Amino acid sequence: MAEQKKDLVLDIKDLVIHYETDDGVVEAVNGIDIQLEHGKTLGLVGETGSGKTTTALSILRLVPDPPGVIKSGSIKLDGKDVLNLPVAELEAIRGNLVSMIFQDPMTSLNPVLTVGEQIAEVIALHENISEKEAQTKAGDMLEVVGIPRERYGEYPHQFSGGMKQRVVIAMALACNPKLLLADEPTTALDVTIQAQVLETMKKLREQYGSAMIMITHDLGIIAEVCDEVSVVYAGQIVEHGTLEDIFESTMHPYTEGLFGSLPNIEERKARLQPITGLMPDPTNLPKGCCFAPRCKYCTENCAKSRPDKKWVSDTHYVRCSRYEEPGFQIERRGQ
C-alpha cells in the first residue's frame, strides 16, 4: 500500500455521486480517491461522460441537486470538510480557496458587464478592500494574463476566444487560490492560442504556487502541464501515477487504448488504433470491470467482479484483475 502523502490541499476519499432521474439512476462517480499536494498539478484524463467534471463540481459542492446526490465519501479541502460546511462558509471559499476555469469562456462571462468589472467583482467579494483598490487590482490581473489594462472597460464580445479565456483565468486567479480546477480550458481554442493559454496557466501557477486539477481528454496537455495523472473510466480511476509512470510504464488496457488512438510522430504510416465500442451506459454499468466489454485482454473473471486497486509502486496503482496473474503485461505501441 502506498504511503499517505503529506501536506495535502485536497483529499477525496471513496466519493460516490449519482444523478437520480426519471429514466434511472446515473452512476456518475463510483468511488474516486484523489490526494493532491500543495503546488502540484494532477491531470484527470478520460472520455466525455467519464465523471471528470462531476468530480470537480463536487469539490465546489456545485453538483446540481436535484438530480445529483453525493451518496458517500468525503472531500477535505485544505483541511475543511467541504460536504458539511455551512453555505456561508462554502461561498467564502469558492473563488478564494478554490477557483474553477470552465470549458467555454463564452458562457463563463457576463455579456453586459465589462471584463474589468467582472474581475473586480470577484476581488471585492473576497477581499476587504475599497472599490477603487479592487478596480486597480483587476487591472493588474489583466496585465498578468497579457491583456493591457486599457481594455478594462471593454465587453466580452470585443475579445477573441483566446483573450476571453485569459480573462476567465485572471478571474480564477484574482484571489490567489490554493487550488485551481481547470475543466478542458482550451477545448474551444485553436491550437496556437491553446499553447499560449497553457503557457500562461503554467507560468501563473508557478508564480502563485497554486495546486491544479487539469481535466482533459488530451494526453498532449497532460504531458505539458501535469505532475501526476489519474485515468478515469466510467466514474472510477482505473490507473494513477506520476507523469512518468503513466507515459513510460502504462499498465491499464484503457490507458493503452488512449495512447493507441494518438498519431505516432516517429512512424507516420502507423495506423491509429481506436478503442472499439462505447463507454457503458452509466444507468446500467457492467457487474464486473466496466472496461471489460471493450477490452482485448478480458477473461471470464474480468466480467464477474470489479477489480481492486493494485499498487505497483509508492506512486502507481492500477485497477485490472489480470495483474493478479504472474507475468501479465499489456502491449504498448513503441515499447
Secondary-structure topology with pairs:
Elements: E1 8-21, E2 24-37, E3 41-45, H1 52-59, E4 68-77, E5 80-81, H2 87-93, E6 98-101, H3 105-108, H4 115-126, H5 131-144, H6 161-173, E7 179-183, H7 191-208, E8 211-216, H8 219-225, E9 228-233, E10 236-242, H9 243-248, H10 253-260, E11 310-311, E12 317-318
Parallel strand pairs: 3-8, 3-9, 6-7, 7-8
Antiparallel strand pairs: 1-2, 1-4, 4-5, 9-10, 10-12, 11-12
Helix pairs in contact: 4-5, 4-6, 5-6, 6-7
Describe this structure as you would to a colleague.
- This protein has 335 residues and is α/β, with parallel strands linked by helices.
- It contains 10 helices and 12 strands.
- The strands form 2 sheets. It has an 8-stranded mixed beta sheet, sandwiched between helices. Strands 2-1-4-5 form a 4-stranded antiparallel beta sheet, with helices on one face.
- Strand 9 and strand 10 (236-242) form a beta hairpin.
- Helix 6 (161-173) packs parallel to helix 7 (191-208).
- The longest helix is centred in the middle third of the chain and has 18 residues, at 191-208.
- The two termini are 27 Å apart.
- The model has no long low-confidence stretch (mean pLDDT 91).
Low-confidence stretches: none
Largest sheet at a glance?
8 strands, mixed
What fraction strand?
Answer: 15-25%
The rounded distance between the terminal residues' Cα atoms is 27 Å
Which descriptor suits the 3D outline? Answer: globular
Question: Which structural class best describes the helix and strand composition?
Answer: alpha/beta
SSE topology string: EEEHEEHEHHHHEHEHEEHHEE
Query: What is the average of the pLDDT values?
Result: 91
Structural Rg: 21 Å
Count, helices: 10
Number of strands: 12
Strand order of the largest sheet: 6-7-8-3-9-10-12-11
